[in-house]
């Protein structure tokens, strides 16, 4: 895994400070630390709270115990030992204030932006990561299946959201991947609606967008359905969105650009009269974070690679009426996709 970083010969060593990247390399969740790697050595710097666990969980790393005030002086010492000159750092994570501190402390080295390098590396999942993401998506589906029978006229969005959280934890999640989106009726026209006290009314559309984090990896799925009979426009809208997603799922494959993948659903929706109503991208990468590279969006020329995990989530939103979004999580393969979300997509459950 580390060797892939050094395809870029202009960087001698990398410094990772973010919690996500520390976890990526160590599979150890800590609130403080730093990873230093070159082609031959790996160091994990952390404080006394994690010393014993780090030695057990990260046997391939040299463990260095350090406090926050001494972190950069110790980093400098190790980088000198590595004979590093050019040091890659997380330019999309470091604040301006922290960058000033790092630049001052590491003045003997040339700092090179490296966030895109690690993001592209993380975008292609290992077999172990694919299993963990699939397990998290399975937990999410189990939780939703247990909550759907509890949804009745009069229940509030917040109550449904709370039940989903409870079931996710009970099924093995460590936390939510993001705040649950539970939207009833006209609220479903807001793509990122904040679940509130609105009560479910007869024939309301129900949009549920949820995900959990389990063993460090995220899931994501959306279903839109009803327990009654919505008006004919919403019935038609659900059918069109489902068809757009189905068309995209049948045709996405490794080797196409993110723009091409996005166009599969976007052009289908446009052909049915919905252009402005689909205002977000078709999908995004999912892994340690629920939003990662690649961004499956209009204008993005990045090529989809085998074993990337992406969401496929076309949606149409009409103010004053409602919205429909259907989202599956898939593994990109050379000849298509492996769908991790075989959950009911019918309008009527």
- Unreliable segments (pLDDT under 50, ≥5 consecutive)? none
Strand order of the largest sheet: 4-3-2-1-5-6
Name the structural class: alpha+beta
**Number of helical elements:** 9
Cα separation of the termini: 44 Å
Total beta strand runs: 19
Average pLDDT metric:
96
Strand content: 15-25%
What's the Cα radius of gyration? 23 Å
Biggest β-sheet strands, sense, barrel: 6 strands, mixed
Write down the overall geometry: elongated
Helix content: 25-40%
Order of helices and strands: EHEEHEHEHEHHHEEEEEEHHEEEEEEE
Question: How does this model look, in words?
Answer:
- The structure is a single chain.
- With 349 residues, the protein is an alpha+beta fold.
- Helix 2 links the parallel strand 3 (42-46) and strand 4.
- It starts with 12 loop residues before the first strand and ends in a 10-residue tail after the last strand.
- The chain is built from nine helices and 19 strands.
- It is elongated, with a radius of gyration of 23 Å.
- It has helices spanning 19-26, 51-57, 71-81, 96-105, 115-123, 127-147, 157-170, 232-251, 258-271, and strands at residues 13-16, 34-37, 42-46, 62-65, 86-89, 110-113, 175-176, 181-184, 205-210, 212-214, 217-218, 221-226, 283-285, 292-296, 309-312, 315-318, 322-325, 328-333, 336-339.
- The mean pLDDT is 96.
- Helix 6 crosses helix 7.
- The strands form six sheets. Strands 4-3-2-1-5-6 form a six-stranded mixed β-sheet, with helices on both faces. Strands 7-10-11 form a three-stranded antiparallel β-sheet. A three-stranded antiparallel β-sheet has the order 8-9-12, covered by helices on one side.
